[in-house]
């Protein structure tokens, strides 16, 4: 037990800050659930970038999601300053007792000070000066000799103040909402997929999201097409998804062009909430290290995840261990990670070999290995 826990009985309102991309924000969801479970009286708010807010809105443990719009900087100095000032006034008006800053973003130090919170938590960051160190009351250490999943790293902020989550409390929650569920049901019905058959081995579908905003995380389109062809040959219906981004849409078109029988495509048609609703209905998700993979895992859908330069130990599809299991290795796995075992350099964490945007460790993954992982989970 820590010697300086935060007395949660004295905390009325808390603000949790996660200024990162979509997947990072989603993997912070257990922090809200755990804090609420251990201190139900606390009103908990979030602060995230506006484009990532859908990862946390409707979360049952969150009172309000505050946002920072990355587009503010395009408004000009005066308009940006006004937007920032309005946000600060809103946050100060909440009178937070506790601020938990989950990243190294410098903004967290300013907010911890300016909100007047009595307790403030942040990562221990080497090289940060007096301003950072004096802005927080508690610092979270990071492992120096081992890799740790991002969910656990986020929850370490709570452990540091004396809140210890049980294994089952570490679940990632994402709520699509009734509107998203209704639209996805209608889209699937238009393609002859009934809402009640998502887990039916004969009539359900496999969701394939081949793209990522980072090209160096993607498997070649030709290999993805070969895999989809194999699924079609086995009698599986395949639904493709992708962001509206032009590069992602182009990848979908390249895959479709190599299929004798095109897959159902919802590429560019779905919001993040709708993608979550779609993933929840799929019997399997296939994709690369990306936010959609984390979304599918959060919805309880078994995942086959392809990893290249990024680390699967830190970013693999998350599955909370059972209450009676001391670690996730004792829990039956609902996911399979496929990565190269012939590239000792992975995970390198860089944007393709030599910064080339092309990752040989991914390009070299054989279709047969991915197909075998699919067979393990689907049984076909």
Please describe the structure with a list of short key phrases separated by commas or semicolons:
single chain; alpha/beta; Rossmann fold; 2 domains; 6-stranded parallel sheet
Protein model, in words:
By secondary structure, this protein is of the alpha/beta class. The protein folds into 2 domains: 8-169, Glycogen Phosphorylase B (Rossmann fold, 3-Layer(aba) Sandwich); 178-378, Rossmann fold (3-Layer(aba) Sandwich). Helices cover 35% and strands 14% of the residues. The chain has helices spanning 22-26, 29-38, 77-92, 107-114, 130-135, 150-160, 178-190, 221-233, 246-257, 272-281, 291-298, 312-315, 360-363, 367-378, and strands spanning 13-17, 43-49, 64-68, 98-101, 119-123, 138-140, 205-209, 237-240, 264-265, 284-288, 303-307, 335-339. It has a 6-stranded parallel beta sheet with strand order 3-2-1-4-5-6, with helices on both faces. Helix 4 (107-114) links the parallel strand 4 and strand 5. The model has no long low-confidence stretch (mean pLDDT 93).
């Amino acid at each position: 037990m820590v010697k300086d826990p935060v007395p949660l009985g004295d905390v009325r309102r808390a603000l949790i800050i996660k200024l990162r991309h979509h997947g990072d924000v989603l993997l912070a969801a257990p922090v809200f659930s755990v804090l609420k479970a251990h201190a139900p009286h606390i009103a908990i708010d979030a602060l995230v970038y506006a484009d990532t807010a859908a990862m946390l809105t409707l979360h049952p443990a969150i009172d309000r999601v505050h946002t920072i719009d990355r587009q503010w900087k395009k408004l000009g100095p005066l308009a940006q300053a006004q937007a920032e000032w309005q946000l600060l006034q809103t946050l100060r008006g909440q009178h937070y007792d506790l601020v938990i800053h989950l990243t190294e973003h410098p903004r967290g130090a300013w907010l911890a000070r300016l909100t007047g919170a009595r307790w403030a938590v942040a990562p221990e960051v080497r090289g940060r000066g007096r301003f950072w160190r004096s802005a927080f009351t508690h610092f979270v250490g990071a492992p120096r000799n081992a890799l740790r999943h991002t969910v656990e790293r986020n929850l370490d902020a709570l452990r540091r103040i004396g809140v210890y989550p049980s294994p089952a409390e570490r679940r990632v929650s994402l709520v699509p909402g009734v509107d998203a569920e209704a639209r996805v049901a209608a889209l699937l019905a238009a393609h002859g997929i009934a809402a009640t058959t998502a887990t039916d081995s004969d009539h359900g579908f496999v969701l394939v999201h081949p793209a990522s905003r980072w090209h160096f995380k993607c498997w070649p389109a030709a290999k993805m097409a070969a895999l989809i062809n194999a699924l079609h040959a086995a009698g599986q219906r395949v639904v493709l998804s992708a962001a509206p981004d032009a590069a992602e849409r182009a990848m979908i078109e390249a895959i479709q062009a190599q299929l004798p029988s095109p897959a159902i495509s919802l590429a560019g048609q779905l919001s993040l909430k709708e993608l979550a609703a779609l993933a929840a209905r799929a019997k399997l998700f296939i994709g690369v290290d990306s936010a959609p993979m984390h979304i599918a895992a959060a919805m309880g859908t078994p995942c086959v995840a392809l990893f290249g330069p990024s680390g699967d130990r830190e970013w693999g599809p998350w599955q909370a261990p059972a209450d009676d299991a001391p670690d996730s290795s004792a829990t039956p796995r609902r996911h399979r990670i496929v990565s190269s075992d012939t590239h000792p350099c992975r995970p390198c964490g860089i944007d393709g070999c030599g910064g080339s945007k092309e990752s040989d460790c991914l390009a070299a993954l054989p279709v047969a290995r991915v197909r075998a992982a699919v067979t393990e989970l689907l049984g076909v």
